[in-house]
Design goal:
This protein has about 800 residues and is of the alpha+beta class. The chain has 31 helices and eleven strands. Strands 1, 2, 3, 4, 5, 6 and 7 form a seven-stranded mixed β-sheet that branches. The chain has a two-stranded antiparallel ribbon with strand order 8-9. The longest helix is centred in the middle third of the chain and has 38 residues. The structure holds flavin-adenine dinucleotide (FAD).
Amino acid sequence: MLEFVLAALVVFLVFGFFGLAIGWWSLAAAALLFYLSNVMAFSAVTNVVVAALFIAVAAAMNVPWLRRKLLTDRILAVYRRILPAMSQTEKEAIDAGTVWWDADLFSGKPDWGKLLAVPEPRLSPEEQAFLDGPVEELCAMCDEWDITHEHQDLPPRAWQYVKDKGFLGMIIPKQYGGLGFSALGHSAVVQKLATRSSTAAISVMVPNSLGPGELLLHYGTDDQKNHYLPRLARGQEIPCFALTSPEAGSDAASIPDHGVVCRGVWQGKEVLGMRVTWDKRYITLGPIATLLGLAFRLYDPEGLIGDEKDLGITCALVPTNTPGVNIGRRHMPLNAAFQNGPNSGKDVFMPLDWIIGGREYAGKGWMMLMGCLAAGRAISLPTSAVGGTKALVRFVGAYARVRSQFRTPIGRLEGVEEALGRIAAHCYMMDATRTMTAGAVDRGEKPAVLSAIAKYHMTERARQCVNDGMDILGGKGICLGPNNWIGRGYQIAPVAITVEGANILTRTLIIFGQGAIRCHPYVLREMRAAKEMHGDAASREFDDAFTSHVGHVLRNGVRTFVLSLFPGLASAPRNATPDTKHYYRHVSRLSAAFAFLADISMLAMGGALKRKEKISGRLGDVLSMMYLVSATLKRYEDQGRLKADLPLVRWAVRDALHRAQEAIEGILSNFPVKSVATLLRWIIFPRGKRLRPPLDSRNRECARIALEPGAIRDRLTAGMYLPKGEHPTAVLEAAFLAAVAGEPIDRKLREARKQGLENVLSVLTPEELVQWEKKEALRKQVIKVDDFPQDFGRAELVLDGEAHVAAKAA
Ligand SMILES: Cc1cc2nc3c(=O)[nH]c(=O)nc-3n(C[C@H](O)[C@H](O)[C@H](O)COP(=O)(O)OP(=O)(O)OC[C@H]3O[C@@H](n4cnc5c(N)ncnc54)[C@H](O)[C@@H]3O)c2cc1C
């Protein structure tokens, strides 16, 4: 009997692990029953009964027609009843975009060969020339203090340059006069600008993200494209896109802004048009826009263009000089100077031709927005977050070497080192994610889930890094002024968190909510069979998807357990080096655990999982961490496995794997059905939680990278604008190099001080003295903070004895 139980267990584990088809299970079951019958010496009658039962069950499982009638059609009926109704807007959000590596991670068995075979995305020579030329020049024109304090905008010269050089038309194809850049090229431009001026980065990023340009490219009529795209590309039109209104923020599909189809007079002729009323806020570039992309709900009560009375969300292009358009006032988003403000209109008449895509696209606005969201979300905010973080690595690292306390550069004090090491390692992982996600867009993906992961995690990490940076700088970061190069970045961090899907919502609702349906190999098929198909077709499709789904859950459950006991069995690329092979294996194991846990959570909580955001947020965290680790490992491979980068890879990967494990722990601890949680814990962590957070020694290695000039630091911050001239960051860089070069002199002076010499400088040679004095002058300049007259902001502002008019300071 024991042998039988052991044999059954082995069959279960082996067949489950390899995910064998039901036919193989039936054969194995037959063999085991035969064995049992012999061992237990069943009587003839028992044999007949057992055989009959077996044949009945095996037939029910293996013959699709029988299985449908006896089992899956009944499950389908129940499924139809319990499946929560999905609104059209939810459906369009789910249908939007494509899945790629996220589907592999969701499968429980990621195909590493497929990921590593994807070529490393590269900039074209033209894109590189643009970065080295116009982008470099625009960066040089921008001084963030000047912009945010003096001008409250980009200087007019910079605006003109942006328009003239085609910055606003990076995604517009060359045939319309745009730059026709790849997603990677577009991302590299935004990244470089973000290392210098967030105002410039945002002003350039918005027209290249979801808005009139992108919508026209995908849905515009030929007339609309031919008219607007060249004008947008040349900067003759400044676009904005207005979706958000006071009552509809995150729940953007509920906008109360509305239009009614009616007849009216346009340019002296009676035409069919719409009378539109709206009240929008937070619209970036709105105050200076000449072309308003407007989202509103369109109604046709008189049936002038069809039978439907409520056509749905519609997107139109409205020139802002149209009578009745109220635009031009601005908000003040955390002292940032990019243009952002409200706009409104009441019963503004506009022809139907203004609908993007023309009359046929009336009511299709939500589908259009969802269809275009992924590309912009994959680039704009993740990229600017990476740019900001690169600047932090370079400047905070430099400062931590220049600034000394307790006679030690603060970067070498363990507490500071901890924060600095985090910034450096996060930067590596963030840049890897930026590149891989942009590369996916360039290969034609519209990564709905991956773009949400990139947006959420890059902006959160940037916020954590800027917090760390601020802590390292102490008072130097707090006192604003021309010498403070971090304060405005710190202020603006929550803007990226809030826009393009506020982060809490993105984490708890979108990443897993959309991922579970889009990336899961069977859930969407089951839902479609239940809700969109009928009769025999629905029955067949559901049967196939459901039985495959059961096999999938079984396989992932067994794999999770087996791989936790024997991690060496988890898949990793054949040619991975010992440095990273175990990381691939950890992800493979986590992928199986995640896929299993996701299915059991959906089974246990059903539609309620949608409201259990603390659970779905953590499931999203596991998926996200696996994506971030995949991107990091891919970058390490793509860049030729540079040993010098290994500390960054190790820290970032360990940290993310540990976070994934803790997210699973959080799910299990809070799982609503305790008995299921106990079983899950036993399957997922049979040997306990074995992933440890990164070691302090690794953190030190990462911090050292930010503290040492050289190739690794340059590679980590590649693509950023390197400051020149008298800008405080250029002085900082010079002080950093001088501090490093001057360390032997410092040692000599320390020795002299120890020996009690009265004039310690006398131990230096004349050359050393000059070098030391230069270093000290730079250091003093770096640690300086700005001060202002007591009546600052009311009348005149004095900086370093120079008088400036504080024009708009109040
Ligand atoms: C500087 C700036 C620029 C912007 N630019 C534009 C623009 O150009 N065009 C445009 O149309 N809009 C723009 N927006 C609007 C932006 O997209 C919205 O602010 C955003 O959608 C959030 O809406 P809200 O601020 O009203 O927050 P709310 O919707 O009130 O959300 C408040 C909080 O609740 C959370 N939340 C909401 N629903 C859920 C949920 N179901 N589950 C969990 N958490 C939830 C959110 O995550 C957030 O933390 C901009 C906003 C800002 C601040």
